């Protein structure tokens, strides 16, 4: 009984179904599923979608979140809001050669609001907004699917009727719990897809409102058509796919509002039939509305083009190897193979991965590759569905299949490589909108099976089982997105050939201090992709720290040979050459790094260290000054300037630099310590003491802080305090250089004073 529950609204629905039955078959008629009032259906969908992803609310910033959020200056209050409209999603200028041209200012604006309300980079608020957005979208899907599956009908009072309450609820549940959506919900950068989907659906629902007859009896409202276009523009400002809703609105208008028979129209065009208006082209203002949609879309794209410029984004072969293939045949075969894998992720979302590039999916280079079967299966299914959508005598079937295919294919077109190269092989996030089409087709298939099945409840239980499995999979996948370690390790079994997976696991281990394990994964990344310069650079860095300088130099030299403008590798190569005492080569490497990255404070800092080792003090000070100009909070550069000036006897200049540094970084205890040393030598004992005590309060376990304060007291004549801090210093570090000798001198002096006093 549970699959055909009746309620207070059921009789009204049944009357509506009876009236509609005269025009077209009702999809709900043979389906054994829950029948709930609209309000309760939406509550159920919201609750289940929340349960799927709730455990991601307290996850970390992971993977792309670092670049899009933590390192994105557009989120900071000091960045003018106007800059958001001239920067890409990652905070780079759109005019830059390195920009990915992903123009999503409204998404970045929501990140900025998150950051300001949270008072910093606290991921909980970011995650909560993503979960709320997905729940909201899933609730809207109940209305969207009721239109797509049941048609668009209004009551005499102008209220839209839900003519498919059972199947729209099922389709919305399928959408809400689909595991492929985890990346969009649990990964914070997925907000671009969520916001895009929200305004995408609002645009569609707004377009549907245009056909609610008003009191004047007009067939449609131009106002709501224009609102739909504006909402489509907003969707595109959240993510590029949003613009496709205008095409889908046109398809919906033709098929549902005008009940256009595409096959009949094609036949009339081929035979140059003069009665095209009878085919529905001119009825109810279809051409006028399509003109509005096309004009709006063209205007939006033109404005976007003017803002972004004409330069295409710069991607590398490892991002999308098929797009770099010389052979058109190889490109076409692999693009179609990627489509089949996307379709498989919708059908069986069990093998999910945060990144599918870098050799995860080897190229198909000949027709003898067995993976060609996947292409054949995809096109067999697509051609079958297209034939049914065009040629079926059942208008209801034609409408649903065409809408299902439209929502499956059209939002996917920007990611298809057909119009421009994209920077990925497969990205689960781009399937968020196309999954709407999948849910339509799945639900329609379920209704057809229910019509044929004798035991409908068994079929309903099977579908309920699929939903429960998907809920479980969503919860498991969400937990993997909570931390980078879990996320990266989960990909090892899915994409063992993906060099980037091994690189990210290695980087995560290195960040946690496990260098030995990190080396293993970095080596595997380089083995899988011998041109992976970032893996070479990181591996070279670790080997440098472990004093394995020869291999480190070989790796870094190879990295800059493969990518001559790789500034970080040039700098690290310079550090290794400096350690090998090949100073001229090191200096040349540093300057090459600066040539390729003009604003490179860390490189200037290391260049200054090289000059200091060579006793080129003026050059060292200039290099460190450049580092602090480019990065005023560069504590190491400030410290080195103070220490060098102190060591060369320029106490007044050292004091001035120290005060300038503390003015910029007032809570840096290492700067307090350096300036305190200078003040002590200048016999400004009181001020020096205050800074030493402040530094010790900030870092009480630094033996050198206590030791140098003891020296100050020793000079100042406060011998008891000097003795106390010498003892603390020796307790913290019994081998502290000079401290034991000074302590022994103090003890002898105290003994002499005691003898004189005795």
UniProtKB/TrEMBL annotation:
It is found in: Endoplasmic reticulum; Membrane. The keyword Transcription regulation does not apply. Residues 311-383 form the DUF1736 domain. The chain crosses the membrane at residues 39-57, 131-151, 188-208, 220-237, 286-305, 372-391, 403-424, 430-449. PROSITE patterns: TPR, TPR_REGION. One of its GO terms (biological process) is endoplasmic reticulum unfolded protein response. SMART domains: TPR (SM00028). The keyword Transferase applies. It is a multi-pass membrane protein. One of its GO terms (cellular component) is membrane. InterPro entries: O-mannosyl-transferase_TMTC, TMTC_DUF1736, TPR-like_helical_dom_sf, TPR_rpt. GO terms for molecular function: dolichyl-phosphate-mannose-protein mannosyltransferase activity. Pathway: Protein modification; protein glycosylation. TPR repeats lie at residues 499-532, 533-566, 601-634, 703-736. Its main location: endoplasmic reticulum. Its EC number is 2.4.1.109. Belongs to the TMTC family. This is dolichyl-phosphate-mannose--protein mannosyltransferase. It comes from Himantopus himantopus. The gene is Tmtc4.
């Amino acid at each position: 009984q549970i699959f055909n529950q009746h309620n207070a609204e059921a009789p009204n629905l049944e009357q509506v179904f009876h009236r509609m039955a005269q025009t077209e078959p009702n999809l709900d008629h043979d389906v054994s599923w829950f029948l709930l009032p609209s309000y309760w259906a939406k509550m159920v969908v919201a609750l289940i979608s929340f349960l799927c992803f709730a455990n991601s609310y307290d996850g970390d910033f992971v993977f792309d979140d670092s670049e899009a959020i933590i390192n994105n200056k557009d989120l900071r209050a000091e960045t003018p809001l106007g800059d958001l409209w001239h920067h890409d999603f990652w905070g780079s200028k759109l005019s830059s050669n390195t920009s990915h041209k992903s123009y999503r200012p409204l998404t970045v604006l929501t990140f900025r609001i998150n950051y300001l309300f949270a008072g910093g980079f606290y991921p909980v608020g970011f995650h909560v907004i993503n979960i709320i957005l997905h729940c909201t979208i899933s609730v809207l899907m109940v209305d969207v699917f009721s239109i797509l599956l049941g048609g668009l009908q209004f009551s005499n009072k102008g209220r839209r009727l839900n003519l498919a309450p059972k199947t729209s609820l099922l389709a919305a549940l399928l959408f809400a719990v689909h595991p492929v959506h985890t990346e969009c919900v649990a990964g914070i950068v997925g907000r671009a897809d969520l916001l895009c989907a929200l305004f995408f659906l609002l645009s569609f629902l707004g377009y549907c409102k245009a056909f609610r007859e008003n009191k004047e009896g007009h067939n449609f409202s131009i106002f709501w058509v224009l609102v739909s276009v504006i909402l489509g523009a907003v969707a595109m400002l959240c993510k590029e796919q949003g613009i496709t809703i205008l095409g889908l609105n046109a398809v919906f208008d033709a098929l549902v509002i005008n009940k256009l028979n595409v096959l009949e129209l094609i036949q009339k065009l081929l035979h140059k039939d003069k009665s095209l208006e009878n085919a529905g082209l001119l009825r109810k203002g279809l051409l006028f509305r399509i003109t509005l949609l096309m004009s709006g879309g063209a205007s939006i794209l033109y404005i976007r083009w003017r803002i972004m410029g004409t330069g295409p984004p710069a991607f590398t072969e490892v991002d999308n190897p098929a797009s770099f293939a010389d052979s058109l045949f190889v490109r076409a075969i692999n693009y179609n193979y990627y489509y089949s894998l996307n379709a498989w992720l919708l059908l069986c979302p069990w093998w999910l991965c945060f990144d599918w590039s870098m050799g995860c999916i080897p190229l198909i280079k000949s027709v003898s590759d067995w993976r060609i079967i996947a292409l054949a299966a995809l096109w067999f299914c697509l051609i079958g569905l297209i034939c049914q959508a065009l040629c079926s005598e059942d208008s209801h079937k034609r409408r649903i299949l065409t809408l299902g295919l439209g929502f499956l294919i059209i939002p996917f077109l920007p990611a298809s490589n057909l119009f421009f190269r994209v920077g990925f092989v497969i990205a689960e996030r781009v399937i968020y909108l196309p999954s709407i089409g999948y849910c339509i087709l799945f639900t329609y298939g379920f209704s057809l099976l229910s019509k044929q099945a004798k035991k409908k409840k068994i079929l309903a239980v099977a579908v309920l089982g699929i939903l429960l499995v998907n809920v479980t999979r969503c919860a498991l996948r969400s937990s993997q997105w909570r931390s980078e370690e879990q996320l990266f390790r989960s990909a090892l079994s899915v994409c063992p050939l993906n060099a980037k997976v091994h690189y990210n696991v290695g980087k995560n281990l290195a960040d946690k201090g496990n260098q030995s394990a990190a080396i293993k994964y970095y080596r595997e990344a380089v083995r899988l992709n011998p041109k992976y310069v970032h893996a070479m650079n990181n591996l070279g860095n670790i080997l440098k720290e472990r004093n394995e300088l020869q291999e480190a130099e070989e790796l870094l030299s190879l990295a800059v040979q493969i990518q001559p403008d790789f500034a970080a590798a040039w700098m690290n190569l310079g550090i290794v050459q400096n350690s090998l005492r090949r100073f001229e080569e090191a200096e040349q490497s540093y300057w090459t790094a600066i040539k390729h990255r003009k604003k490179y404070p860390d490189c200037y800092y290391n260049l200054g260290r090289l000059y200091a080792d060579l006793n080129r003090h003026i050059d060292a000070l200039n290099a460190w000054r450049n580092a602090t100009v480019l990065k005023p909070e560069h504590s190491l550069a400030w410290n080195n300037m103070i220490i060098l000036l102190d060591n060369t006897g320029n106490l007044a200049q050292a004091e001035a630099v120290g005060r300038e540094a503390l003015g910029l970084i007032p809570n840096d205890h290492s700067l307090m310590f350096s300036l305190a040393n200078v003040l002590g030598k200048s016999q400004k004992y009181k001020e020096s003491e205050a800074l030493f005590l402040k530094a010790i309060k900030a870092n009480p376990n630094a033996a050198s802080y206590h030791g140098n304060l003891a020296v100050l007291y020793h000079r100042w004549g406060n011998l008891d305090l000097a003795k106390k801090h010498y003892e603390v210093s020796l307790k913290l570090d019994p081998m502290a250089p000079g401290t034991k000798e000074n302590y022994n001198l103090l003890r002898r002096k105290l003994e002499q004073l005691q003898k004189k006093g005795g």
